[in-house]
Amino acid sequence: MQIFEIDGTSVPFSFHPTTLKSSKKARPRAQLTDNHIAMLQLPIVDESSSDITKITFPNGMVNYVLLARQNSSCPSLQRLHNYIMTAKNGDKLDTILTLLKNSRFLTDDLGGGKYVVSGYGNLGRNTKRRPPTQPCMRKSLTLPEHDAIANVVGGILSCVACCVQKHCEELYIKNQKLKQINPNLQWPSLKHQCLEYSWMSSQFVLRRWGPGLSKCQGGTPQKNMIVSAHVDRGDLDTVMPSIYCTGGGVDGKGGRVSGTDLALFENETGGAGVHIKTCIRDTVVVVMSNSRRQLHGCILEESNAKHHDDLSAWSTRIISYIPNGIYHWMLQNQKSMPAI
Question: 2-332: what fold?
Answer without folding.
Answer: Double-stranded beta-helix (3.60.130)
